[in-house]
Amino acid sequence: MQQRIVICTGGELGAWATEWIQSSDLLIGADSGARFLVEHGYRPDIAIGDFDSVTAEELVAIHSKSGRVMACDPIDKDYTDTEMAFRLALDMKPREVVLLGALGTRFDHSLANVYLLALAGEQSIPAFIIDGHNKITLIDTSTEVTKADYPSVSLLPLSSIVTGITLTGFQYPLEDATLRIGQSLGISNVLLEEQGTIELSSGRLLVIQSRD
What we know:
With about 210 residues, the chain is α/β, with parallel strands linked by helices. The chain has two domains: about 5-130, Thiamin pyrophosphokinase, catalytic domain (Rossmann fold, 3-Layer(aba) Sandwich), CATH 3.40.50.10240; about 145-210, Jelly Rolls (Sandwich), CATH 2.60.120.320. Helices cover about 20% and strands about 30% of the residues. The strands form two sheets. The protein has a ten-stranded mixed beta sheet. Strands 8-13-10-11 form a four-stranded antiparallel beta sheet, with no helix packed on it. The radius of gyration is 18 Å and the shape is elongated. The relative contact order is 0.15.
């Protein structure tokens, strides 16, 4: 069976993040995300980035406690540390990618990281961005959604238009609906049962499950 890959990167991380790490996961630490893994007793299989967000002492610890370190110049690079880690993960053809620490105070980085989900979608690899309050994925085909600890479900187009949206098991159902970028019709829906179904005909749709 293909392995699940968990990436820790340099946004907001906390104790909640360790709840998403399983012993069978391949772990990638991007920049200060590698420091987070090491500080919490994990051995990153790969640490990657320019490591401009860690001290010299922390970098020594990352080198000594990681399976492999892939360092790059902070100036001469085309991608963010998170994108480098994400592309590396996709090249491994994993069963699934979970991205922790991808959201934070820098909205530009947060939005760019959400856009990375499109890269996974192009390869039909399920990918999720998770923080203490949100679980985000991108779909282009019918999908089942499980409530778990997320009472709110919002749907936002990532393509200019998404057509044929039909919701089953939601408080506010839709039938063959169309959503366009800029519309808020899909915000803050609620699952009535533990599972619901989102069907769509065309386009790419962000599914954002949230809790306060």
